[in-house]
Every structure is written in C-alpha cells, then in structure tokens.
Amino acid sequence: MNWNASDMNLFLQQKEYIDTLVVPLIKVETIEERMKASASSTDFLMNLVDYIELQFKGRIMVSPPFAYTPSMGLEQLGEVLAEDFSQSSFKHVMYLTTDPDWTSIKIQGKILWLPSIPIEHMDDRLKQSILEDQLKQLLPQLTEEWRN
C-alpha cells in the first residue's frame, strides 16, 4: 500500500494486518558532478520500493520518500523520523536506502541498505530481473524483522 488517499482508506480499515512501514531515504546530491549518480540512485530505489510494495501489498505501507542533502545531519534526521514513526500503529519500521552512511546510524527501526544499480538504460525485462534479485537479497532481513 502506498501513502495516498485511496490506499490510506484501506489501511485504516485493515490496519491490524498491515504491520510494516517502509520508508525510502533519498540522498539528493547538490554538487553537479554527483547529481547524475544521485538521480540514478533515486530511480533505482523508488523502482525497488514500488516492486516491494507490489509483492507485499496487504502487509506493508510505503511512506513518501524522505529526501535530504549531504549537509543534513543523518543522526538527527533518523532520531526525528524514528520518534515520529514510533507513535504510529506500525509494529515494524524499515528504512530503505542506497546511501551507505545510514549503516553507521543507530536508529529505532531497521535500516535496509543496498548499493544502487543504474537501471535507467535497461529494458523492462532486465530491470524486472534486477529488482527480483534485489528483493531476494532483502527478503532474509525482512523476514528476520517480522519474526521479532
């Protein structure tokens, strides 16, 4: 389910079954030489998030992406997000990112990091295969979190 009006109506009716919130974390590079890589990472991450949402519809809610720039303090951002989401009805909050800096941040919830793969020039079948492979890598972490 996505954070939109129609899915939110369904979530509010069935929230006892939807126990997981996936929060995309998007690093927005402001230095021109890094902008293309940043945009490519965003493209990859949002495609992966859409694929995860499709596979686990009825189990997860996907929040809108949280974008930040390199000068923003990740620890403070993480603390604020964790505090706000801890007040929600979600039992599990998972932050999905391609930014390796998040792996050193202690946060309530689970950080799911994976390297970005440039998918913008791939045909749809190859892109689908890449997304399936990435989900297979994330699946053990998802199921471990759900067991706890």
UniProtKB/TrEMBL annotation:
Stored InterPro entries: DUF2487
Protein origin, superkingdom: Bacteria
Protein name stated in the entry: DUF2487 family protein
Native source organism of the sequence: Sporosarcina gallistercoris
